[in-house]
Amino acid sequence: MPPSRAKRAEVTARRAKAIQLRLAGASWQTIADTLGYSDRAAAHKDVTRALEAEMTKLRQGAEVLRESEVRRLDQLQRALWADALKGDTKAADTVLRIIDRRVRLLGLDVQQDLDEQTRVRLTQQVAERMYVVFARVLDQLGLTEQQRAMLPGLLQAAVAGFTGPAAPDAGSRSPRTIEGTVVNVDEEGNVQDG
Fold first, then answer.
1. Could you state, in order of their start, the residue ranges of all structural domains in the chain?
2. What's the pLDDT band for 164 if we cut at 50, 70, 90?
3. Exposed, middle or buried: residue 27 (CB in 10 Å: 0-12, 13-18, 19+)?
C-alpha cells in the first residue's frame, strides 16, 4: 500500500530539514539525532536519495523544455523556409541562425567543446567524491561548530597553496613550500630529494 499523502508530506518536510542542516554544516549524526533517523547512515541515505530525485526532476523538466523549444524552432524555420529558398537573404540568414540554435540546443556541436565538457565533468565528479570523503572525515573528528566554521577558510588557504604559482618550465626545478617545508618540485609536480 503506498504511503498516504500526509506521510509523503512528512517525509518531504524531514528531508528538506535534513538538507538545510547539512548545508549549515551539521554532521550526519546530528541530523539523525535532531530529525529522528535511526542512525547517521539512514540520514545520509535519505538526503542522498532526495537530492538524486530532485536532480532527476530537474533533468526531466529540462528535457521537456528542450523539446518545446525545438518545436518552436521547427515552426519558425518552416515559416521562413520557402522565402529563404527563393533567395530572400534575410530569411536565409534567419533560417541559418535557427539551425545553429537547434544544433546548440540539441548538443550536436558537442565535438568542439568535448575537451572542456570532459574537464568540467571530471572536476565535478572529483569534487563530489572529495565532498563525501571530507564529510566522513569531519564526522569522525567530532569538531565543534566553531571549529567547523573555521574550515572553509583553512581549506581555501590549503588549496591556494597547491594551486598558487604556475608550474615551472620543463626541465627546471623550483622550490615550493608545502606545509611549512621548502621542497624542490619538478615540472610534473613531483617532490625531489635534496
1. 1-108, 112-143, 167-194
2. very low
3. buried
